Amino acid sequence: MEPEKDSDFDDSNNTHMECYNDSTASESERKSSENKMFADCNCDSISDVTPSDLKFDKETRNFSKKVKKIEHILSKSVINVKKLRALAVSEGGLVNDKIRKTAWPLLLELKPVDDADSPTEEELLRHPEHQQVVLDVNRSLKRFPPGIPLEQRLALQNQLTLLILKVVTAHPRLHYYQGYHDVAVTLLLVTGKEASYQILEKLSTHHLKDCMEPTMEKTYQLLNYIYPLIKYQNVAVYDYLEKSGLGTMFALPWFLTWFGHSLNQYKDVVRLYDYFLASEPLVPLYVCAVIVAFRSKEILDTPCDMANLHCLLSQIPDDLPFEKILIRASKLYKNYPPHIIEKDVQERLRKEEDQRKHEFALRQKRMNQNLPFVWRVISHFDPNRRLPIWAADHTRYIPPQFSGYRYLVATATVAVGIYAFYLKAVEAAPVWDMSYS
């Protein structure tokens, strides 16, 4: 079934995507104001610096009425979470970081808690995953505001490291994964140190809990929701991707980081976070599927092989109309909620498992075909003999037709043994290639 053509996919109606350009100053003026603002900041009190100081968000007149609606909801002693979520999902999201700082915790119905029992910094730094967290955080420079002074960036990175370690220390069953820091840094920059911990803890034990298992097996299984969702939108694209053997690894960083690792525009990242924080946990997979279907022409114009298609899809264009994509994702979720497509997902997983077993059996068969001669040689070898096989009298132990290859036979024996051990290890513990860099 071809995807429906929505009138709301006309670029001329996408005022949200234009509002960030109309009211901005020139590049030189922007950089000058950034440098002045950072020069005035006290690095020692960086945790008190509001995200708007770091992000330079500007409220636009396009959403002035919406801002008033949101502020009215937030001013009440009892927050109408349902209305707040509806506004977060609708066009423009929560508009700016000043609102997000207050609204994001409320979308998850979080309340301030006493932080008295939190572990000390020394305890956090003893966590076994501390070094990996530090390595990932040090690679997250592009996620910080441009022009930020070195001292301030280092302070933010330290806060980010401690934020992550605090969550995984408080919940020992949670396992840090590469990309988790992309989620954490977005929350930290928008909501600050205290609120970001509450949000990250909630997401880690709810929305992202399957990603924080000891292995990525559950995450891999969840990614298989994408293909049925693509099929419901565009059968031609679905068939093309299946024929290529692409798989789902292209979408791994999208799902693990809520697109934080893959998008270049900060405004797009926080807009998606508005949407995801107000939605069900599997909604990011629906957005993944819509993005793929939305790029159908590019996909069908790309050679039908895994390498080319993975290269295409792993790079998300900066000009994607996310407001339109989110509208379509909402419709897709309404028409095909997770319980409706569960059967399709399980069938896909079963076929992939059967294929994996078949390929493994073929590898074993090919290996076994080369073993008879090796085993014949070994059967003639005297276990009490101290000399290695390649020092033996080859006319006695090796058939004449192979007499010139005694060194090759010895090397092959060792190699086959190592290879057999490797195959046993692979069979006992399958390893998924979950890298996304």
Automatic annotation (TrEMBL):
GO terms for molecular function: GTPase activator activity. It comes from the Eukaryota. The keyword rRNA processing does not apply. Keywords: GTPase activation. GO terms for biological process: endoplasmic reticulum to Golgi vesicle-mediated transport. PROSITE patterns: TBC_RABGAP (PS50086). Residues 12-26 have a biased composition (Polar residues). InterPro entries: Rab-GAP-TBC_dom, Rab-GAP_TBC_sf, TBC20/Gyp8-like. GO terms for cellular component: endoplasmic reticulum membrane. This is Rab-GAP TBC domain-containing protein. It comes from Menopon gallinae.
